[in-house]
């Protein structure tokens, strides 16, 4: 099975998760939910409109506030993956942090005797 973006999964529905959180925490609207989760209101709106995924840090915050397990929270939004992967950009060393590699010519010459 090929790699597909989570948002393309038919079962993925972050609105279900957000609606369940509203009910569980007895909140009136998304603005109250954003205050509880300590995120800007546009974040919730972008998640609802599938323009922003539910990131790991927000998932952890939901866990801290509700006491629900990460697995249960992911199940509520239809995320059935067994691993939660970071984006390609996260965790990669910055170009200036990477060790300098020897130039190809130097590497090729290193094993040769003159």
Could you give a short description of this structure?
This is XRE family transcriptional regulator. By secondary structure, this protein is mainly alpha-helical.
What does this molecule look like?
This protein is mainly alpha-helical and 114 residues long. The chain has a domain at 8-80: 434 Repressor (Amino-terminal Domain) (Orthogonal Bundle). 46% of the residues lie in helices and 0% in strands. The model is unreliable at 1-8 (pLDDT under 50).
CA gyration radius, whole angstroms: 21 Å
**How many strands, which pairing sense, and closed or not: the largest β-sheet?**
none
In what range is the share of β-strand residues? under 5%
CATH topology of the domain at 8-80: 434 Repressor (Amino-terminal Domain)
Key terms for this structure?
434 Repressor (Amino-terminal Domain); mainly alpha; globular; 46% helix; single chain; XRE family transcriptional regulator; disordered N terminus; 6 helices; 114 residues
SSE layout and pairings?
Elements: H1 14-24, H2 30-37, H3 41-48, H4 56-66, H5 70-76, H6 104-110
Protein name: XRE family transcriptional regulator
Organism: Pseudoduganella ginsengisoli
Region (Disordered): 81-114
């Amino acid at each position: 099975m090929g790699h597909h973006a989570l948002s393309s999964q038919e079962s993925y529905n972050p609105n279900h998760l957000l609606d369940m959180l509203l009910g569980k925490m007895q909140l009136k609207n998304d603005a109250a939910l954003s205050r509880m989760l300590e995120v800007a209101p546009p974040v919730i709106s972008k998640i609802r409109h599938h323009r922003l995924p539910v990131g790991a840090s927000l998932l952890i915050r939901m866990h801290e506030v509700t006491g629900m397990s990460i697995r249960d929270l992911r199940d509520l939004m239809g995320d059935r993956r067994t691993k939660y992967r970071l984006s390609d950009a996260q965790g990669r060393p910055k170009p200036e942090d990477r060790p300098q590699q020897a130039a190809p010519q130097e590497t090729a010459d290193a094993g040769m005797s003159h």
